[in-house]
Amino acid sequence: MVAAIESIAPRQAGAQNEAELLTRARRLVPLFAERAPAHDRDGSFPFQNFKDLFDAGLLSLTVPTALGGHGAGARLTARVLGIIAEADPSTALVLAMHYIQHFVMARHQDYPPRLARKLARDSVEQGALINTFRVEPALGSPSRGGLPETTARRTETGWRLSGRKIYSTGAPILSWYAVWAKTDEAEPRLGLFLVQAGLPGISIVETWDHLGLRASGSHDVVFDDVVIPLDHEIELRKPDGWRVQNPTQALVHAAFVGAIYGGVARAARNWIVDFLKTRTPSSLGAPLATLPRAQEVLGAIEARLQVNARLIDSVARDFDEGNVVSPVEGSIIKLTVTNNAVAAVEDALSLSSNHGLSRANPLERHYRDVLCGRVHTPQDDATRIAAGRLALGL
Fold this sequence. Notes:
Elements: H1 2-6, H2 15-42, H3 47-55, H4 74-87, H5 89-105, H6 113-126, E1 130-133, E2 151-154, E3 159-168, E4 176-183, E5 190-196, E6 202-205, E7 219-228, E8 233-237, H7 247-278, H8 292-320, H9 327-352, H10 363-371, H11 380-392
Parallel strand pairs: 1-4, 2-4
Antiparallel strand pairs: 2-3, 3-7, 4-5, 5-8, 6-7
């Protein structure tokens, strides 16, 4: 199995190809930004955005070059996600979950090579998207422990899967689900099962009506005795085997999730800069940009965004160069980046008065979207506790 995985290990895109991929992403920004307000207002899913991403060759960004993709490393992937998030973070979130799946499966020996090749081929040729479904109504976030209620029962004809997943990002468009479940064995094992969308027994319940990231289609997905092939188990271990987070997942939280919320904050920064330059109250007789207070607050926004950019770029570059990112370090970076992003948008709101909270302007949407960073795994309290325990040697 090791040899098989190594044969599809990603070769990272060259500098010229990277520049072209970034250019393709930037070309989509005006289109996505124009559509974003309506999708946010209606809670509708941005299907056209993903057609455009497929046409631009960006859905296969993290698929290995040996399998027809671009083999993007962490740094390029984070940059693309940040660009897309400036225009529409809901689209960027679905895209990030898809990128993460191919990024991880190309780098871990536990992922069955045959399934990795099939998923890569579907992404390259058909634009098929995949995400992992972990969270459940009773379980909450799996990162905090506990056994899922979703159960896979082994039979002679295949695994039979039953359960309900919530916050299933991208549910309306996904072709594949990697479902977190336990087996019904005397000593249950935990792991992921690959499930093709549309099988009998699968239903999507449109429950997503959220404050932010409203166009992400993060609905409930119900599995009612769904039959999947026996060889579609991705990774099964005893519960204790899942206690230690792998370095790739740490990188994912720090660079990819962080890049999304960093992109939202940049969009807010761009709006407030334009507002300060063009808003000229009659009592002032000059643009708000001439006020020292406005300049100071904007400078604080710039400082937070530059720190974010450096942190994301640094951790992604380290990973690409083979330097291990510890789970605690990755979580601390995610905490820092997302809280900087929230603070930057709040600073922008402080300069905009009622204008920033008007539905006619995008700043209130950016604020709702960026707040989601605080509840995105890992949450701040879990990160601080882990860092404190590590410092205490516990």
